[in-house]
Amino acid sequence: MDTREKLDAFQKRIDNDEKIEPKDWMPDRYRKQLIRMMSQHAHSEIVGMLPEGNWITRAPSLERKLVLLAKVQDEAGHGLYLYSSTETLGARRQELVEDYIYGTAKYSSIFNYPTLTYADICVIGWLVDGAAIVNQTMLAKSSYGPYARANIRICREESFHKKQGYEMLAKMAAGTPEQRRMAQDAVNRWWWPTLMMFGPPDDESPNSAELIRWKVKTKTNDELRQSYVDQMVMEAEAIGIKLPDPELKYNNNTGHWDFGEIPWDEFWNVIKGNGPMNRERIKARRKAYEEGAWVREAAMEYARKKQLREEKAS
Ligand code: 3HC
Prior knowledge:
By secondary structure, the protein is mostly helical. 68% of the residues lie in helices and 2% in strands. The chain is built from 13 helices and two strands, in the order H-H-H-H-H-H-H-H-H-H-E-E-H-H-H. It has a two-stranded antiparallel ribbon with strand order 1-2. A hairpin with a 4-residue loop joins strand 1 and strand 2 (256-258). Helix 6 packs antiparallel against helix 7 (145-173), helix 6 (118-139) packs parallel to helix 8 and helix 6 (118-139) crosses helix 10 (221-238). It is globular and about 70 Å long. Bound molecules: 3-hydroxybutanoyl-coenzyme A. 3-hydroxybutanoyl-coenzyme A binds next to helix 2, helix 6 and helix 9.
């Protein structure tokens, strides 16, 4: 088959909702787009451990410490599934990692904001993991098999994360005046950045059209953002939390909640590296990477020797 025929056959498989597997033929551009997106997702899971890890020792009880520790460990696991699935496309993990800690590869804007009080941890669970679920439930149906399967597992765990965040926030929102103030303050600071997690508006999203044609994404950034807002309005109301948007209003014509203008200048500024915590996050990741060099070397040497032993024995 020539390239045109291969491309047509590939698109036909996508249109028939077949999964593309690592050894199947795929256009270079499909591979490149997946490596970009999946590795950004993996980096986000790993950087996402930092704002929460910061609170493990200060969580208010042993039970809360255990839950937070388990959540942060889950995020490390998500990063590992995602790096492994990106490797099925021929990418090298070390290069991917070095491309964001020393280079220009992106990770989610949301992790460049500080966690000022313990209420931020509740709100990350509810709003940030809630946004991740909306996005990743869609990605669990992605056309690339290993990515879809990684997201199925991730969503199950994120669902527990969201519930624990919501439960803690509900307790705070029904607590003392000081607890209620902390809960509302955290929601005020995190609401707009969580809407930015879904990416720029559709008419400013250079990758969406291609990703949708290949069913890597099956919904646009704006469609996902709208379903998130619709869901969160109800959940906020149920626990007596106010979302900080005076323009939130139910629209009888569309059946959705209209919302105010997202501060897009802030979003572009954060993804260019100028958010409140970008420098600190990268500094922490570099330190961990450099201090962990001996662990990687020892693991590689162990694997090399094990392989030699197995070859000798067979
Ligand atoms: N943060 C940082 N960069 C973002 C971004 C965000 N919130 N949203 C978009 N961008 C970047 C894109 O990566 C792209 O940059 P690039 O072309 O240089 O790579 C540029 O802005 C234009 O955006 P597009 O809309 O064209 O990009 P996409 O079509 O790829 O859509 C996306 C962006 C919706 C983030 C999509 O890539 C996606 O769904 N990614 C996989 C999921 C993911 O990465 N989630 C991150 C959160 S992880 C998480 O939630 C952890 C959990 O524990 C809470």
